[in-house]
Amino acid sequence: MKLRNSLIASAALLAMSSFATAATDTTDIEINVTKDAYVNFIGSLQGNATKTLALADVDATTTTLGTLGTESNTTGTCTVDFTTDNDFKMVHDTDATLFLHGASQYTLAYEGATIQSGGTNSVNLATCNNAASNMDMTSPALPAVVIAGTYTDTIHVTVTTQ
Predict the structure, then answer these.
(1) Concatenated DSSP letters of 96-162
(2) Span 10-49, pLDDT tens digits
(3) Percentages of the chain per state (helix, strand, coil), in multiples of 5
(4) Could you give the CA distance from residue 145 to residue 62 in angstroms, rounded to a whole number?
(5) Which tens digits make up the pLDDT trace of 72-120?
C-alpha cells in the first residue's frame, strides 16, 4: 500500500508538472537626447555694439561699421532682418525734428544686399554658418551747416533660422 501511495503521488506530481507553463516579460527602453537649436551673431558688431563716427565718415561716403556673421547648430537657411529706430536717418539728441542729412537717408550693405528705407530689408543666407563680413553704411552729403549736437540711430538686426 505504501508503494501504491508513492506511485499515485508520483503520478499526480508528474501529471501536474506537465501543465506548468513558462512565464516571460519584455520591455523596450528608448533613449533620447535633445539639444536646443541656436543661432548667434559673430563679428565685431554682435552683442549690442556702439559705433562712434566722425562727420567725415558720414559725408557722402561709405564707411565700414564693422563685421557681422552667423553661427548655428541647425541645417538650412537663415534670414537676417534689418530695421532702424529712425527709418535710416540720424536724429538730433535733443530736437527730434532735426536730422543729420535733412530728408535724406543712409543705406546699409551686407552680404551683397542693399538695405534701405522702403526696401526689402531682409538678407537670405544659404546657410546659418557664415564668416563675419563687412557691414557698410553709405551716407548722403551733409548740409552746409550741421547743427551742433549728437545724432543717432539704432539699427536692429535679427537672424532667424528657416
Answers:
(1) TT-BTTTT---EEEETTEEE-TTS--EEEESSS-EEEEEEEEE--PPPSS--SS-EE--EEEEEEE-
(2) 555 555 555 568 899 999 999 999 999 999 999 999 999 9
(3) 10, 35, 55
(4) 21
(5) 999 999 999 999 999 999 999 999 999 999 999 999 999 999 999 988 8
Residue written as cell 526696401?
119
Buried b / exposed e along 19-42 (16+ C-beta atoms within 10 A): eeeeeeeeeeeeeeeeeeeebebb
- pTM as predicted: 0.80
Cα separation, 156 vs 70, whole angstroms? 15
Residue in the block written with cell 564668416: 131
